[in-house]
Amino acid sequence: MKKKIIYAVGIIFCLLIGSIVGAKVSYHHLTTTIQRPILLAQGSMTPTNIGGAVDLENAFVRVAEEVKPAVVNLGVEKKIKGRTFSPGFYFHDPFFDDFFDNFFKGFNQEREYTQQSLGSGVIIDSKGYILTNNHVIQGADEINVTLLDGRKFKGKVVGADPKTDLALIKVEAKDNLPTVRLGDSDEVKIGSWAIAIGNPFGLDHTMTVGVVSAKGRSIGVAEYEDLIQTDASINPGNSGGPLVNLRGEIIGINTAIVAGGQGIGFAIPINMAQKIIGDLMEHGKVLRAWLGVYIQEITPELAKEFKGAEAKKGVLVSTVMPDSPAEKAGIKRGDIILSVDGKGVSTPQELQKEILKRKSGEVVKLGILREGEIQTFEVKLAQMEEKGEEAKGKESGETETTSTWRGITVQQITSQLAKHFGLSPSEKGVLICEVLPGSLAAKAHLRPGDLIKEINHRGIENVTDFNEAVKKISKSDDAMLVIKRGQVTFFAILSGE
Q1: 340 in a domain, yes or no?
Q2: What is the pLDDT of residue 425?
Q3: Contact 298/388 with Cβ under 8 angstroms?
Q4: Is 457 in the active site?
């Protein structure tokens, strides 16, 4: 009997153990079956995925190995004069200058001290030519160039171009220096890899990675802009360093950041830089072709005022400069430039870029929309002169003003007003002397000191012309104004109420 009981207990124990083991096996199988697609969906590394990641990593490593030797750190020194009262305390303030001159004569003397700053550059020619930003080397008395291998040189400015914020310097080396290939920035796409290498905060040859966030940006740091925006980290000291693609080719020169922003940096496209480089190497300055027009973008409101403009893209001519190539070719204010040598242009930046590609003396064919008809004009470009002009004329004593219209009050130009706003008293038009906050004029970004030259295609020479023109405009109708601000003329729309 005891043997049977022991035998039965043994069987039950074995069955219990088997059930537990079987349950564990089933649970493992079940969880593995469920988790496998979940893990795969979450991007777990299969052998294929690992291989792709390794290839990408290797590409970044190759870029670092190939590009960093050609990236240089620039230490710029500038001599600055200031007054000192105690060692190391420099200042320049009229009040304190007079105070210390009177009470501490002999102690408060003007002295010269050295201001130091850091930047980056990239070697583009094995003979020692280095491309950087103009703002990095502007006013430099001494430029110290340091390579990745520790070699140090004194840099000499070959030429600079403030209009694009580019500069070319040169060092004298016994051997050929490492260089970086130039890419094609026109082929860069939004989302393409972007790699910045430079000297941020003095951290030598730092490499950061991101993508191209946008193209064709204009942020007001230079006169000619067609900037590449990237989220590759750019910081003070990166200026002048290269932005490269995954093949290690330069696609831009890092030039600016948004203060307080994160992941918002800008680079000058290398295609824009190439002509600048050539001119600086050959002439020490940039020889630009000149069309002789001021231009602006066509907004939907402006498009309604020009026949056929709503159906066409283009750039609006707001001013034609006297004796310019454009005037000689018959271009007029209000013309819409649609193309340059058959290539369409939709923004002022695109038109500038096309003209900058040309040389002085070259003839271009402009597609022009005028009064709803497309015409072709041949323009022989001239060389841009780097000098300003001052207008002179006789004085005017009229002081007539108007009541407020759509938020603006205007006045005839007087000698005092002309002097205050930097105008010639003989200038035709009426001066905006007040803009009411929140008004239609304020929404159109008009401001005191602007000069009204036309209203709805009617020339305005004085306050009488202005009053007659606005009387004919009903409250519900839009009004198109030609505004002169400084040396720039542009169109503005005051919407109807």
Answers
A1: yes
A2: 66
A3: no
A4: no
